[in-house]
Amino acid sequence: MDKGLKVLRKSPFQKLTVVASALALMSGCSSKMITGQEVKAEVLKTKSNEQNKTQKNGENSSKPNIVYIVLDDSGFSDIGSYGSEIKTPNLDWLAENGLRYNNSHVTPVCSPTRASLLTGRNPHDIGMSTVANFDMGPDYPNKRGRIYPEAGTIAEVLNEHGYNNYALGKWHLAPAHQVTPAGPYENWPLGKGFDRFYGFLEDSGDQYRPELIQDNSPVDVPKKENYHFSEDIVDRANQYVTDQVSVNPDKPFFLYLSFGAQHQPVQVPQKYIDMYKGVYDKGWDKIREDRFNKQKELGIIPKDTKLTGLNPGVKPWAQLSEEEKKVFVRFQETYAGFLTHTDEQIGRFIHQLSTLGQLDNTMIVFLSDNGTSSMGKNTGSINHTLPYNDVPEKLADVVKHIDDIGSDRAGAEFPTGWAQVSNTPFKFYKATTFEAGVHTPLIIYYPKKIKDKGGIRNQYLHVSDITPTVYDVLGIDLPKEINGVKQMPLQGKSFADTFDNPKASGRDVQYYENNGQRAIYEDGWKAVALHKSGDPYENDNWQLYHTAEDFSETQDLAAKYPKKLKELQALWEREARKYGVFPMTDIAGDGFLTIPSDSNRAKNSFTFYPGMSRLSEAASPFIINRSYSITIPINRNKASDDGVLLALGGYESGYALYIKSNKLIYEYNMGNAVYRIQSNSEVPTGPSTIRYDFTKTEANKGIGCLFINGQEVAEGTIEHTHQYKIAFEGLDIGKDTLYPVSSEYKDEGEFKFTGEIEKVIYQLN
């Protein structure tokens, strides 16, 4: 090991690979792996040697650096220090040298959690009660998909206190219809106080070919062998902090490192999947039981906690077929490898802070934005557009693609049986207001203030409490105005006193609401309302749990304590009115269909020109479940002028209009079916006008017709179109970037049209 450390000191810019030694043995790797404990040793050994550099670089400054690290869709039990068999040595190192909170809560879905985290307020009150994809217009001020200016972000506040602010990774805090290369930008990271941004703006991104934004501009995926998004954002994070410490060492920084992991698509290099060969053959029942027992041993859950039963629809492992077991094991191996890979990137960032002499002067906050998702349903998913559209996947199709899971050929998500394992010991999933949806890990590392290294704290906390805690630690008062806008009070409560006082108080009351699902917590009691979409809210069935004694919500006490339930119901009503929960809606997938009248996407006519940057799917012409036409004047100088005229989406789903071998072709890729319409005559050379008409005949079904110079040249029925969302890749004019929509030109690269396109006109009826 000492030899390995000497190599690191000899080459200070060498990338540090952090993977557990046990996994290295399992994978048969010959190279030396470095565990979290060895990172700890390296940090301690180099600390004295770096003391002079540390002082020069401002570590003794009164202003510490602040880092938020956020995982996406990762459950309470997923990391090692919270009970998992998944190797996460670097997050475990943070836990061993900081504090773990075992009663910390977020919101049921990602955007509200992130809005609450960055502002210190409840999400409804600031315009982000659900995911940013859903902007329901001014009649629903709590569902605008944005953070109101009255709720300044931590970046905006720290700007006024001499900090540089960096955001990397997933944003998902701007209305999806505003994700265009021409803005509007006020809800993008740079419009919310950050000096630099590098990542993606929507709810999820491909790990191999993401739709990247740098600052306010779309950029191409780096042409790097074995590119991976998690590695890329940590490379950038390391660059940002290195530049700052090198050039302006006395200036502190705030860095928001928000991974796309563990959200679908679950994608990671094969070697990380191979590390877990054989680990999950025992099945989800045994793995869940093992995690539960380890959680008790670690003290991360109370000794009297009960393990909930299997969720509805989840079969006991023994009842699965051998075919099911084989493919389901592959899903979990991939998920575990994805998390180990993410942990490795976090380790590289921690190592860089140490190398720069900044680690001891940095407060690091780690959390997950909600519990693990059930989007993979009972079969698992290999095409993540399909579950977004409520289209079931056949087990046979999933099995056929077993070797693609984790690669760029599958948008993978594991089945619900493994999702429940991630949420151990709780029942249900993300998007619910049960503990599985809102109870996630929280680790605070800050050696200047935290002396109880490895301690566990039991206080009930909410994500809105984190930024007020940072302000408390920094001695910062919230400004009355930011950019001339009067600021609303903080609604979170600092828990900085828990750093040195295990018995300090936590939060007393917290409401929850997500698309009609409701809950309220008060002093160890929790009431949960079960809502069925479309039903009156007064018909909801309420359950009651004494979570102070029933950590995992196994005993519904509603019938036993009706008076207590009524008290909590009344409290939910008061809190809801106080924090802007009304008006409520119970939208789910249909939220994708809400197009506010004040958005650019509400138009019925669009004209795009060649050379336009890729336009996100969420901002593209809204053709779902309606008739429309696409008209394209072109010029073919020669008969060999082929290529894509327009394309939206990729191999998972989308549509494309292209010319190949002189034929005009339209393809609509549903994800589980491809509808292809080809002209019966050739496209002439010289100027011509291409048109595609779609006539809706019934819900999500219609007839497509191709025209050349006004003459119909082909017709075909498209039996099924997407109900909610067409694709996770945007619209290209004159080429098909990232992933190809059609397999007919998958070997042609971007298949750029070699003729001339005058413009592309969408007309929606």
Keywords:
single chain, 765 residues, alpha+beta, Alkaline Phosphatase, subunit A, Arylsulfatase, C-terminal domain, Jelly Rolls, 30 strands
Topology:
Blueprint: H1 2-10, H2 21-27, H3 36-47, H4 51-56, E1 65-71, H5 89-96, E2 99-101, E3 104-105, H6 110-119, H7 154-159, E4 164-170, E5 196-200, E6 212-214, E7 217-219, H8 229-247, E8 253-258, H9 270-274, H10 284-298, H11 322-355, E9 362-368, H12 385-388, H13 395-400, H14 416-422, H15 435-438, E10 442-445, E11 455-457, E12 461-462, H16 466-474, E13 481-482, E14 485-486, E15 509-514, E16 517-522, E17 525-530, E18 541-545, H17 562-578, E19 605-608, E20 628-636, E21 643-649, E22 654-660, E23 663-669, E24 674-682, E25 686-698, E26 701-708, E27 711-718, E28 731-733, E29 756-757, E30 760-764
Parallel strand pairs: 1-8, 1-9, 2-11, 3-12, 4-5, 4-8
Antiparallel strand pairs: 2-10, 5-6, 6-7, 9-10, 13-14, 15-16, 16-17, 17-18, 19-30, 20-25, 20-29, 20-30, 21-22, 21-28, 22-23, 23-24, 25-26, 26-27
Structural overview:
- By secondary structure, the chain is an alpha+beta fold.
- The protein folds into 3 domains: 2-499, Alkaline Phosphatase, subunit A, CATH 3.40.720.10; 509-590, 2-Layer Sandwich (Arylsulfatase, C-terminal domain), CATH 3.30.1120; 603-764, Jelly Rolls (Sandwich), CATH 2.60.120.200.
- Helices cover 23% and strands 21% of the residues.
- Strands 7-6-5-4-8-1-9-10-2-11 form a 10-stranded mixed β-sheet. Strands 19, 20, 25, 26, 27, 29 and 30 form a 7-stranded antiparallel β-sheet that branches.
- Helix 3 (36-47) crosses helix 5 (89-96) and helix 3 (36-47) runs parallel beside helix 11 (322-355).
- The chain is globular, with a radius of gyration of 26 Å.
- The chain starts with a helix and ends with a strand.
- The relative contact order is 0.13.
- Residues 1-60 have low confidence and may be disordered.
